[in-house]
Design a protein that fits this description.
- By secondary structure, the chain is of the alpha/beta class.
- The protein folds into 3 domains: 8-169, Thiamin diphosphate (ThDP)-binding fold, Pyr/PP domains (Rossmann fold, 3-Layer(aba) Sandwich), CATH 3.40.50; 189-318, 3-Layer(aba) Sandwich (Rossmann fold), CATH 3.40.50.1220; 342-516, Rossmann fold (3-Layer(aba) Sandwich).
- 37% of the residues lie in helices and 17% in strands.
- Strand 17 (488-491), helix 20 (494-505) and strand 18 (511-516) form a beta-alpha-beta unit.
- Helix 1 (8-18) runs parallel beside helix 7 and helix 3 crosses helix 14.
């Protein structure tokens, strides 16, 4: 019996579903209407609407970080993809698997340079590891299977499938069978031997990333540290880090280059485990870019290799029978009432954080004073702004909550960062996601005030300061959240914040707290 007839869109959606991609974060347009129709007709594909493409791409990143598998995005032509590029950049730096579906004008229409005509492959090339644009519906299903295969390839890749409207609507499509993805490669015996020599011959540090920062890999690293005295590090903004009581402690490399160089300079050897050599975020006058340039560096595992298995093997040879060093539970004391500060707010979060929470951290300067307070809080996962393109925190929370509906998500946001993708709150309300958002409202781009001084900008005058402050008028996050269907309160004292955070954790669905923090507090 012959296969049923279907158009290219249905072949794509069925192939994605059969390949294990069953969630689509979407902001479609006219060129994608046949894909929208196919999603409606194909059982087993969940669609989550975002009101801005940066929410869509960031949510796909959050899903991938928590599940290790790709979600699909659905984006409208070149401009829609362009709106989502910043958070695809973050996803690429996080090594998150993502499959982008991007519509294009019908093949015959592209020659007329209509208003939305753009070089879609050129837009996609900036963030994608793999791009394809099938020219016939019979090729669409196979291209979708290949996109999933590419996205799943270790350590995680961005695959972009561009679908012209006529390829989407024409009959003759055929779903394709799932394709096997490239599994992580096995680490060589030589690399393991080199790591063992370094661990036994002096002050060694291990820079961990990917699977090395959670589960079996992190526990093995903890055993190695306990047996050898090695120090464990992670990037300033690690994609995902297991943290809290009962887990192995990992030191975060400082954001600023000078203290990072000083810290790593205490080592005799730096061992890279799924991580590239550490570099400064920016170049500053008179400062080095390579943070470990003066430290001998070796590679235990490259990003595409099995970091967890490598750590387990090293531990079996140098830490047999040794238990990992883990963090003892410790609840910080309740801060005294008074005007709210960032440190007090983080202490409250640490005291009340639910077991197995997911923390999306994009509060930057406001979260820094309380980072240590969270170290011994209830066990939790932290998701960071890996690529430095702000506006990822709220969308990451959306994707994490969709991926893990049984876990509370706590989104720690700066007020400036929140305004990039504030539309994510609407998606949280629509999907009834258990996300508690704390917006640290210090009314400024505080990190940029630090940067102006760091690059030698001197004392900022009124025009310079006007580009860094968020006043005149003050943003009203209670009104913004309420307007998108999310309950919200404002807190400017410690007692108000503690009561609001407790209320939020006891509320099903999303909740926003505007934490008013005086500048510098």
């Amino acid at each position: 019996m012959s296969e049923p007839t279907m158009n290219g869109s249905e072949a794509v959606v069925r192939t994605l579903r059969d390949s294990g991609v069953d969630v689509c974060f979407a902001n479609p347009g006219t060129s994608e209407m046949h894909l929208v129709d196919a999603i409606d007709r194909v059982e087993g594909m969940r669609v989550v609407l975002g009101l801005f493409e940066g929410v869509v791409t960031g949510a796909a990143d959050g899903w991938a970080r928590m599940t290790g598998t790709p979600a699909a995005t659905l984006l409208h032509l070149g401009p829609g993809l362009g709106n989502g590029l910043a958070n695809l950049h973050n996803a690429r730096k996080a090594q998150s698997p993502v499959v982008n579906l991007v519509g294009n004008h019908a093949t015959a229409h592209q020659q007329f340079d209509a208003p939305l005509t753009a070089d879609v492959p050129a837009f996609a090339r900036t963030v994608s590891h793999w791009i394809d644009e099938p020219t016939a519906p019979g090729d669409a299903g196979a291209a979708a299977a290949r996109a999933v295969q590419e996205a799943r390839s270790a350590p995680g890749r961005i695959a972009t499938l561009i679908l012209p409207a006529d390829v989407a609507w024409e009959e003759g499509g055929r779903p394709a069978a799932p394709l096997p993805a490239a599994a992580p490669s096995t680490v060589s015996d030589a690399a393991i031997d080199a790591a063992l020599r370094a661990l036994s011959s002096g002050r060694a540090g291990m820079l961990l990333r990917g699977e090395a920062l959670r589960g079996e890999g992190l526990r093995a690293a903890g055993r190695i540290a306990a047996a050898t005295g090695a120090r464990l590090f992670c990037d300033t903004f690690a994609p995902r880090l297991e943290r809290g009581a009962g887990r192995v402690a990992v030191e975060k490399i400082p954001y600023r280059a000078a203290p990072a160089i000083e810290l790593l300079g205490q080592l005799d050897t730096l061992i890279l485990v799924g991580a590239p050599p550490p570099v400064a975020f920016f170049s500053y006058p008179g400062q080095a870019s390579e943070l470990a340039a003066d430290v001998p560096t070796i590679v235990l595992a490259h990003p595409h290799e099995d970091t967890a298995a490598a750590l387990v093997e090293v531990a079996s040879r140098c830490a047999a029978g040794v238990a990992p060093l883990v963090v003892a539970p410790s609840v910080p004391p309740a801060p005294d009432d008074g005007p709210l500060t960032a440190a007090a707010a983080m202490a409250v979060v640490a005291r009340l954080l639910p077991d197995q929470a997911i923390v999306s951290e994009e509060a930057l300067t406001s979260a820094a004073p309380g980072w240590d307070a969270l170290a011994a809080a209830a066990p939790h996962d932290v998701l960071h702004l890996t690529g430095g393109a702000i506006g990822d925190g709220l969308p990451l929370a959306v994707g994490a909550a969709v991926a893990c509906p049984d876990r509370r998500v706590v989104s720690l946001e700066g007020d400036g960062s929140a305004m990039y993708t504030i539309q994510a709150l609407w998606t949280q309300a629509r999907e009834r996601l258990d996300v508690t958002t704390v917006v640290f409202a210090n009314r400024s781009y505080a990190v940029l005030e630090e940067e102006l001084a760091a690059v030698g900008g001197g004392s900022a005058g009124p025009k310079a300061r006007s580009t860094l402050d968020l006043g005149r008028p003050d943003l009203d996050f209670v009104a913004l959240a309420s307007g998108m269907g999310v309950p919200a309160v404002r807190a400017d004292t410690v007692a108000q914040f503690a009561a609001a955070f407790a209320e939020a954790l006891g509320t099903r669905g999303p909740f926003v707290i505007e934490a008013v923090i005086p500048a510098g507090a």
